Amino acid sequence: MNTRERFRAIMHYEDYDALPVCSFGYWGETLQKWHQEGHLTDEDMLDQDGTPAADRKLGFELDYIPMIGGHADLMPYFEEEILAELPGGLIQKRDQNGLIVQVKKGIVSIPSEVGHTLVDRKSWEELYLPRLQPDAARIDPDALQALAAENETRETPLALYCGSLFGKIRDWMGVEGTSYLLADDEELYREIIDTMGNLVYDLVEQVLASGVQFDVAHYWEDICFKNGPLVIPSVFDEMVGPHYRRVSDLLRQHGVDIVSLDCDGWSDSLIPTWIENGVNTMFPIEVGTWNASLAPWRAQYGKELRGVGGMNKLVFAYDYAAIDKEIERLKPLVALGGYLPCPDHRIPPDAKWENVQYYCDRMHRVFG
User: Fold this and answer.
1) Can the peptide bond before residue 323 be classed as cis, meaning omega within 30 degrees of 0?
2) From 3.20.20.210, 2.60.40.1220, 3.30.450.20, 3.30.590.20, which CATH number describes the 3-73+118-366 domain?
3) Per-residue confidence band for 289, with pLDDT thresholds at 50, 70 and 90
4) Which end of the chain has the lower number of beta carbons within 10 A, N or C?
């Protein structure tokens, strides 16, 4: 079996000969460190900053997950512009989403939001709605044609990227902005959600019409944090749920029945909406943050809920014994089926090359 066949078998609770060893990439600083240590060559670093070479040399078979789709986002993006240079090396700028952010030169972190461009109906209709209209340039027909020609020979799974139904809105307005908008102008709140839902549906429909055979569909949302969701679950269910259902029904008409979603944070209270509307694979499962696990979700929702993630990447900074213990913890989860272990986020700079290599080798030995 190849990696694609194994992935499909795992997600459909079918027999497979070996579990693919899966990664989700690396921090840029991690790859730079390994380059300085001599594990990655100058030539390696020319290709996606060294990610494919690192996967190959370490022993990962699958980087979750190659995907293609339409451009379900602002088009064009805002031009980034410096608004002010502040004391202490701070820079205030407008980013491509229209956010006003504050950054410091040389510091790698999530920028501080200090303002927003999308604040009311006027800014929505003048600056955002025109950037969310159907456009032929949102689809790359040549790339789709090339992928369609590989339908029967492709050896790794391919995902249809469905974009985001609420996460991008949260990106544009911030948590406070979206929360106040619901109270101040519910009609506009709903209109923005419907605009995103219709754009996603239109693009998914066009991509599926290309004839490319997809193994999974995938959303990005990131609408939860450590204490729960950044949106009221009942509102999310009412206003966003139907858009997931429309897209899920369309996907299944084209044979795509594995629908994955990336949402960080404590997402438990939103899972009912996703499951009921056709999203059946949760990613990541943040074990390293608060001991999240597939097991309680499976007990609650049954086999309809799959998972990717849930491997505690923090052990890569420790030793072989810690890695062995982590793999033992994964065994009963893998036995549940419908589950692919994967580091629960990108591998950080404290990871030791030899530890990650040992993990990949042990995973191959333990799981076939």
Assistant:
1) no
2) 3.20.20.210
3) confident
4) C
